[in-house]
Design brief:
Elements lengths: L11 E9 L7 E3 L14 E10 L14 E5 L10 H20 L3 E11 L2 H5 L10 E2 L5 H10 L1 H7 L4 E9 L9 E4 L9 E7 L4 E7 L7 E3 L7 E9 L11 E3 L13 E10 L2
Parallel strand pairs: 2-9, 3-11
Antiparallel strand pairs: 1-3, 4-12, 5-14, 6-10, 7-12, 7-14, 8-11, 8-13, 9-10
Helix pairs in contact: 3-4
């Protein structure tokens, strides 16, 4: 069954991206703290139509440090991405090798996997939905906190003496992506003032993410009809101030060419720490 009309390989589409509005008041969300709901300062968002370029013809020009991302062929031996033991045994080493290859890091530690499915029934069963909001998963403050949580204070202090980064790998896990594709923004086109800090307060910890304010200079890419053997590798934090891109904004979006009966997207996002000698 044909769900999406064929497009020329070089076509640029117009799609709506969900941006945060910089109101001047830092947003605060309470995630698992219902009794604090009245204290919340919710963020305000706006949909802005943006040009989204097909990155496939340009795939060989992208660079992790320059643009913040690369698009790669990456076949996996995984059979069942929901099997935690198989992920640890098979996928974690595959991802670590992939990131070492494209980043030049000497060591990679996988620390998190998130499966997202654009289907309400699957979400009720525990899967997370695609995130339709322009964001970067870590901030200057929350990245070191996460490192300490995973490796402990002593090891974190040792690691933080040299360059380190948080690098993520995103891929489909079933079929072709025909709905809710992932868009990714050239990090060089996002001014520093466009990163808006949003606090996510839990009962026992406080997290931070960057949501991104609209700027007409943003340059967006997508990779139509991604398949299981393809992956996006992108940075969400880097301690090296000399590289052009240290953070990479990304978001799921509604493909205006998707058919109403197209199957839901199923994907996995893997987070890693990358360390350099």
């Amino acid at each position: 069954m044909q769900f999406v009309a064929e497009r020329p390989a070089t076509e640029t589409i117009r799609a709506k991206m969900n941006y945060i509005v910089d109101t001047g008041v830092p947003p605060v969300r309470y995630i698992d703290w219902p009794e604090m709901a009245d204290k919340e300062i919710p963020p305000t968002y706006e949909l802005r139509e943006m040009a989204v370029r097909n990155g496939r013809p340009l795939r060989d020009t992208f660079d992790l440090d320059t643009h913040g991302f690369v698009f790669v062929d990456h076949r996996t031996a995984m059979k069942d991405f929901t099997d935690e033991s198989e992920r640890k045994r098979v996928y974690d080493p595959e991802v670590a090798a992939l990131i070492r290859k494209h980043s030049g890091a000497s060591e990679v530690l996988v620390f998190d996997h998130t499966i997202r499915i654009g289907d309400e029934a699957a979400q009720k069963a525990g899967a997370r939905p695609p995130v339709k909001g322009v964001h970067n998963d870590y901030t200057e403050s929350s990245a070191p906190v996460r490192l300490r949580e995973i490796v402990g204070d002593a090891e974190a202090e040792r690691r933080m003496k040299k360059r380190w980064a948080i690098i993520q790998v995103w891929r489909p896990i079933r079929g072709t992506v025909l709905t809710d594709p992932l868009g990714i923004c050239d990090g060089r086109t996002i001014p520093q003032e466009g990163f808006i800090l949003v606090q996510r307060r839990y009962k026992y910890r406080t997290g931070e993410v960057y949501h991104i304010a609209h700027n007409r200079e943003h340059v967006w890419y997508w990779f139509p009809k991604m398949q299981r053997h393809e992956a996006l590798v992108f940075k969400v934090f880097d301690t090296d101030p000399s590289v052009p891109t240290r953070f990479t904004a990304h978001s799921a979006f509604d493909d205006p060419g998707a058919a109403p009966d197209a199957p839901p997207r199923e994907s996995i996002e893997t987070r890693t720490f990358a360390f350099w000698d």
